[in-house]
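Reviewers of the previous submission asked for a worked example of the structure-prediction workflow described in the proposal, so we include one complete record here. The input consisted solely of the amino acid sequence. No template or homolog information was supplied to the procedure at any stage.
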Amino acid sequence: MRVAYKLAYIGTNFHGFQYQPNVRTVAGELFKAFRNLGIDIKKAKFRCAGRTDAGVHAFGQVIALNIEKLIFPRVLNAHLPEDITVWAWSEVDDDFNPRRAKRRTYMYVLPAKGYDISAMRKASKLLLGTHDFSNFTKKFGERRRCVRTIYDIELRVDDGFVILEIVGNAFTWNMVRCIVSALSEVGSGHRTLEWFKDMLDPERHRERIEPAPAYGLILKDVEYEDVNFEIDEYAWKTLMGRIKSIVEFHGTIYKLFSQFGQD
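From that input alone, the workflow returned the following structure tokens.
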């Protein structure tokens, strides 16, 4: 049988998702867990929805592999470190590849820093539809088209932070983080809306932009046409408890040191 899993992870202490020898990665930890459960990962046709970079987090990453019998998320979590939590599963077709998703949703959070939010929103709306995002990719110099479709985008302010949520069919390497950098340039007044429009027309305007830091990005969800995931209630409670602990820990540190950053 082929099974797909949804998992969350805190990317801070990982060198990205993809397996790399001699460094800690999300895939590496998953492979260890499956081996401990008697799964030959080389024969299992393991696939993932996307390979997040070092420091990038996920809430709804999807993996799939072939196994002889179902391993519930709560069982798998017993073999995983606390910064990875599998929380849902679905039996899928034998040819299911998680990369062939219908929609992907990313979220990025950054401090507001006095940005012109109205200008950032106007710029963000220009992203809707199908565009060549060659100016918003790490492989900028390869001069190949990076056409993607953005279905929805929302930019809001919440308690001193700007939150960008973007939904698309797919994303190029570093695309969301480069978009955040560009929006920040517009919001700070360093760049104009016209410049942002030009960035979406790489045939006429070529410019490299550095991606925003990885720690502000999370892969929120990945959706498919005919796959319905079943939540493992015990695993879900485990995930919620871990998230609460993280928020309390980092929130306490933020509050402590913010007392020394007052004017």
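The chain has two domains: 2-101+224-255, 103-218. We consider this example representative of the routine output the project will generate in years two and three.
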